[in-house]
Amino acid sequence: MVCLGERGVCLEKEVFPVKFAVVEKVLDLARANSIWPMTFGLACCAIEMMSTAMSRFDLDRFGAGVFRATPRQADLMIVSGTVTKKMAPVLVTLYEQMPSPKWVLAMGNCAISGGPFVFEGQYNVIEGVDLLVPVDVYVPGCPPRPEALLEGFLKLEEKITGKRRFPGPESRW
Amino acid sequence: MEQIGNMIGWETVKMVVGLVGVLVFVVLNALILTWAERKVAGHMQRRIGPKEVGPYGLIQPIADALKLLGKEILTPREVDKPLYYLAPMIIFVPVLVSFVVIPFDASLQVMDINVGILVILAFSSLSVFSILMAGWGSNNKYALIGAIRSIAQNIAYEIPLLLALLPIIMMTNSFSLKSIVEAQHGLWFVVYQPFAFLIYFIAGVAETNRTPFDLPEAESELVAGYHTEYSGMRFALFFLAEYTNIFIVSAIAVTFFLGGYQGPFLPGIIWFLLKSYLLVFVIMWLRWTYPRVRFDQLLNISWKALIPLSFINLLITGGLLKL
Amino acid sequence: MVERIKAELGATLKETPVGEADYRERGYHLFAEVASADLLNVARFFDERGFYLAALICVDYKEYLELVYIFSNHASLCKVKITLKIDPAKPVAPTISTVFDCAYWHEREIREFFGVSFDGHPNMTYLFLHEGIDFYPLRKEKIPVSDEDKKALGAFRPGEGEDTFFVNLGPQHPSTHGVLRVVLKMDGEYIQSADPVLGYLHRMHEKMAENRSYLQFLPNTGRMDYLGPMAFNLGYVTAVERLCGIPVPDRANYVRVILTELNRLSSHLMWLGAYLADLGALTPFLFVFDDREEINDILEPVTGSRLTYCYFRFGGLYNDVDDAFVAGTRAFIERLRSRFSLYEKLVGGNVIFTNRTRGIGVITKERARKQAVSGPVLRGAGIPMDIRKSEPCAAYGEMDFDVPVGTRGDALDMYQVRIREMENALNIIEQALARLPEGPIMTEKAPRKLKPPKGDLYHTVETPRGELGIYIVSDESDKPYRMKWRVPSFSNLMIFPELAKGNLLADAVAILGSLDLVIPEIDR
Questions:
Q1: ipTM over 0.95
Q2: Fewer C-beta neighbours within 10 Å, C or N terminus of chain A?
Q3: Which secondary-structure segment (H or E) carries C461?
Q4: What is the number of CB-based contacts under 8 A between chain A and chain C?
Q5: Same domain, residue pair A136 and A151
Q6: Alpha carbons B37 and B34: distance in angstroms, whole number
Q7: A86 with A134, same domain?
Q8: What residue numbers bound the domain in which A105 lies?
Q9: Across the interface, do B295 and C283 touch by the CB < 8 Å criterion?
Q10: Count: domains in chain A
Q11: pLDDT tens across C93-142, in order?
């Protein structure tokens, strides 16, 4: 079975006996090098996301500097901040408006699992954005440092292309 | 080759080759300008722009283009289909027609029409149709507001654009772009008509919807203006048309005021491209320096300042030419 | 002033006595308990004397609900607490939004959180919560929302008129305001009415405060206002210290002042960048982030975080500052002074910017008082009130700085006031650094388990956005019984609908930017 793109067409081998390997690789490389995030800053993590896009940490080096405001022209939704029950339908609507292939990066503890706002008797926080939309990369922290967000970004590129751009930190245990 | 040439006629062959060249140039120009914009923006903001994607980020526009090609072609359900589909295609028509008559070099002009500038001005007012179709057909309030603002702005700024070019036409007695360039053999027209140059430049920046006149695409108010609902390749076409428009505005300014392809030592086309890209750089510089002008102030600038000034300029030129 | 008000108030409320409270322990000078029928008279009394409604709080003591009104004065320090007891079975109270406009939203909030309905209130619909929550969150027991309450609360449905249409500004904003949604009713390009819808980031801070001990709640304060967390930290820590009577060593006080002023600089710089990004100039945004990164470089070795600081502790600090910090701060002050000329040329002298902001969103002194705006917005409108001068905490009393005041009350004045506040902040930091005493940073008398004495306290602090008021009711346990945060952005946003009416959409964005809102502190 061959799949074109992340949510694209899945073709059975018997029906369509053409292999798309090279085209798929080139397209994946292009997609990984030109990810356009959508401005979806909800809370404190949004400021760290903006810091990542600014002069010192510069997300534009990797081709991701064009933050589009409309979901129709964006590839990546960086959910930075707490998702509340009132905001949840908005988030899902925006996710569905994005054309495939699209990715979601959950930034910060609140987007991963509700963060510091989960307590007994809580009534408004959704404990993790992966209860609403499928998440590709999780970046923990409260808020995560810009370097952590860049690492999450590089992990997303690795997920798309299969190869890492820079060598990752060596694991020593 | 000889037989084809004799059958069809050399003129036709030359024209076809020229058109293909124009198309190639439009695509290359868009690629270069998207890269240049991000680099210029980056350096003005104390950072470097795209760097990892190829040396100096030169492959970045190709990555962008391939990504946009591979996007899902999405048509929202409630759009007005004929208008929605046609708008990105029609926006290219005035752009390509304008390229046909611009002289890149003494012998590099697809066709030297004797009413060259009129063709350009007439077709550039057609771009208003495409914006209106995009805004209305998207069935989206923000797109509609953006389209309405853009149309008002375009109509308001076409008049000073034309009025600023008229003195040059009066001085050279011809509409053909080639003869205007040839007439600048001694001294460039910018020395004779500095005000006309400024008025033309400001009106040109407003025509291309660039900051400080980019209220139709105001990100902080209107999400993305008239191309809010376009995704993938259709959005890429709008994007390309905007950058090509910027180049055309600069190219016409160079042709009319800065001597076109004339210059010592280097071949004409290099001078032409150098001068045009210098003006493009100035337009980009303006974008990253100034905030946006509010809409009524924008229209006021055109109707109350630029048009009277260009009229006065025209009268003075006419008077001086008579004497 | 306090004596005069006491005498006059006593004359107005003939039966109920007006008590005097120890200002140092309670945060207010006078208190009185009134009956429902007298409430409107009392409100008018304070309105005539030029007071403003600082806070409107509801506390659920299980046998009764108590509404607490805190009136305060711009000109001289006099705070009066008026309380009203309500029967929990049938909670009804008269509205004072006819006299003080700012009560309009406070009462809506109390309605949805406590179930108290206000007679005569024009619009009792959901402000923060939504239909999915079917109990009153801040009541001590789980009381379900009755059906007619639900219908009344959920009645906000923007419809379509003939020549008008509705445009949503948000909740997903390209600018940095956060998740604020404003429903604008437009006629062409002109705004007929603007209705903010809040609650997209309601993170239940006040309910968490009742479930956490005082020390466990400290990280929450940094997340309420993520641009000025030091000021929120300072307010909370000084409030609890005041409630428990914990002394703070001098060195800690000076370091608190330095860090809070550095944070004020950081917040105002961010406002500058965001405001210009709203107006279309994207480059200053990047420049201010450079300056903010420098501030982060100084603060990170000391506090441990870049954004949501949690550095002050009850009784002092948890980490001392060293010489590298002092040297770094001095170098930073030099650098920022030279950057101010850059910002002046790029922004202040820019004719497009001046045309976009002059005469836009003019706030008169009377409207500022009735809507209880505070901070740079109040000073831009012409009222020279700064809580750092009138009620100094930490070492602000020994610092020498002036209070910048605007003349016209428009957006350009807000800009000028904030620029001058930044310069003042640099001066304050220099003075504090010069006078930084040696000594311990943490007092030895801080108890391990903090159990404040019974009582309530209303403590105010000047954050970069305005007056932050913290009202703590303690019942001698280690968790607060009720903690209410009166945040400046909430009150500043209340003036936006009347400023936006009749203006263009572009102007509305400029006005919203000049108010300097941070949404998580509004939504709490």
A1: no
A2: C
A3: strand C455-463
A4: 106
A5: yes
A6: 5
A7: yes
A8: 36-161
A9: no
A10: 2
A11: 888 888 888 888 888 888 888 888 888 887 777 888 877 777 888 888 88
